[in-house]
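Data deposition worksheet. Section B asks for the primary sequence of the deposited chain exactly as it was used as input, without tags or linkers unless they were present during the calculation. Section C holds the resulting structure in token form. Section D is free text for depositor observations; keep each observation to a single sentence. Incomplete worksheets are returned to the depositor.
Section A, Depositor: J.P.
Section B:
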Amino acid sequence: MSSDKKSTNETPSDEKVIPTTVKTIAGQIVEVKPKEPEEKEAFREDNLEMSQMTFRQRWAIRKQRIKNEMEGMARIQKVEYLLSYFKWPLIFVVGGILIFILFWVGIRNASKPVILSAAYINLSEGVYPTEEIYADYDNYTSPDGLITKNMGSYKMDTAVHFDLETYEKQYNNDSNDYSLTQFPILCTSNFFDVVITDRKGLEFCSASNLIVDPETVISSNTVLALRSRQANAKDAQGIEYFYGYDITDTAFAKQLGYPDKVYLAFPGQSEDNKQHAERFLIYLFSQEP
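Section C:
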């Protein structure tokens, strides 16, 4: 009897007992499965191989793994899986974009003047307009009843030079030239209310989409009143179109030292741009030359 009981409790010598770790939590026995060293080693080896591959090879492998993981998933499950997989890269990218936007808006709001932001293209050498040229405009009351006095400062950008004939040489000499880098960004971000330029600058800006159709900026009444002063130039497709006004004979333009014709164009289309441009345009042609 004893011998039979003994034989039933014995463990065969050819069988291996896999140990487990047992923990007691609040009186409950919890079994923790043993680690699987083989899978861990395989993971390490896989990482080592991946580190020696090119970015394109690593991405191809990851792409295939993602495809395999998503096989059989519903569309919403695939979306959830991808969002989970790329969570941190998405957070960093979106966060970086938001920070850049907030930074840019902060700078723009802090630096953009209240009265007028004007860019002067192709000024003669040695000519640098100051706020003194706006002396009359400081006390100007526009037809809408708004008085410009004590409204704020002006922004005058004079370091801009454009010419379609010399553009390629200008770019080759210095691709980081302010005229080719920062200035176009300011134009397309509604920073400038008006652009004052010679003929070459007008042609460059129209062909480069740095200025817009004046009819999208100023009122129809002002467009009609100044129709005889309209100045055309070719757009990016080589089609001639209405892009500005000839202001050569105005008292304001005569202070600037341009040797030939002077033109006024509009790069911005925000509500502020429209108000400032309309007010300044009416002022220009209400003054005695």
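Section D:
The CA atoms of residues 127 and 257 lie 7 Å apart.
The longest helix spans residues 87-111.
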